[in-house]
Write a structure and sequence with these properties.
The protein is α/β, with parallel strands linked by helices. The chain contains 3 helices and 14 strands. The chain is globular.
C-alpha cells in the first residue's frame, strides 16, 4: 500500500479525535487524523509525524496524519490501511481464494472480507492495532464483539472464519486482547477461538509512504 507526496511534520496538539495541529516547516497546520482511537501514547507533543495530502475536493484539512515515530519506531496510524493491505495480502494468506470480496454482508453484519474458495466461504474480519506488546482494543468496541459472534455463526454453518489483527508496526513481541479496556471483547475472542475461528495477528513493514503485511506474531489468549 502506497501513499503519494508524503511530508514530515511535528505533532503539537489534538483538539478533538478528528483533527490534530501539526507544525509543517514552521507553519501550524490543522490535519485530519485517520484514526479516532485515543492514541495517547503515540500522539505526544513534539513527536515526528508524517502526512499525506487529502484527496477529497473541498475538504477543510489539507493533510491526513498517517504515521508517527515512537521511540525510533515508525507506526502507521491510518485506520483505513489494514483493510487495504489485507486486500493486497489476501491471496497470500489463503492461496485457495478464487475471489476476494470486501464489505461482505453476512447475518446482521457487514464483515470486512469474504474469500471464496472451491470448498466454500472464508470470512475474514480485519482489525488494527499498534504497540510492541500489541493489545486491542484501546476503547470499548461493541461492533468488534458483534462481528466476532458473526464469525462464530459462520463456523457453525460450516464456513471458514478468521479474526485477522493487523499490527501497524514492525518488531512486535505478541498480541492479546485488552481485557482491561473491554473485557467483553476478550471473552468474545476466546469464545471465537474455542469455536474454531482462526485468530491471527501480523506485523507490518512500515515506511513514511507505504505499509505492507510482513509476518505473523504470537497470539496470547
Amino acid at each position: 500500500m502506497q501513499y503519494e507526496n508524503v511530508v514530515q511534520g511535528r505533532f503539537l496538539s489534538r483538539p478533538n479525535r478528528f483533527i490534530a495541529v501539526v507544525d509543517i516547516g514552521g507553519t501550524e497546520t490543522v490535519c485530519h487524523v485517520k484514526n479516532t482511537g485515543r492514541c495517547r501514547e503515540l500522539l505526544v507533543p513534539g513527536a515526528a509525524v508524517w502526512l499525506a495530502p487529502g484527496v477529497t475536493p473541498g475538504r477543510k484539512t489539507p493533510y491526513d496524519l498517517i504515521a508517527v515515530d515512537k521511540g525510533g519506531k515508525l507506526i502507521n496510524m491510518d485506520a483505513q490501511a489494514p483493510n487495504r493491505v489485507f486486500g493486497e495480502f489476501a491471496r497470500r494468506f489463503d492461496p485457495l481464494a478464487q475471489e476476494v470480496r470486501p464489505e461482505y454482508r453476512f447475518g446482521a453484519s457487514r464483515l470486512d472480507f469474504c474469500l471464496t474458495r472451491p470448498d466454500g466461504l472464508h470470512l475474514v474480519e480485519v482489525t488494527l492495532e499498534s504497540g510492541g506488546h500489541a493489545r486491542f482494543p484501546d476503547a470499548p468496541t461493541e461492533r468488534g464483539v458483534k462481528h466476532l459472534h458473526e464469525l462464530i455463526h459462520a463456523v457453525e454453518q460450516g464456513h471458514r472464519a478468521t479474526a485477522f489483527f493487523v499490527v501497524q508496526m514492525a518488531e512486535v513481541t505478541d498480541f492479546a486482547p485488552n481485557d482491561d479496556t473491554h473485557p467483553a471483547f476478550g471473552a468474545a475472542l476466546r469464545q471465537a477461538a474455542a469455536a474454531g475461528v482462526n485468530v491471527v495477528a501480523y506485523a507490518c513493514r512500515v515506511a513514511p509512504d507505504r505499509m505492507e503485511i510482513d509476518q505473523p506474531v504470537p497470539v496470547i489468549l
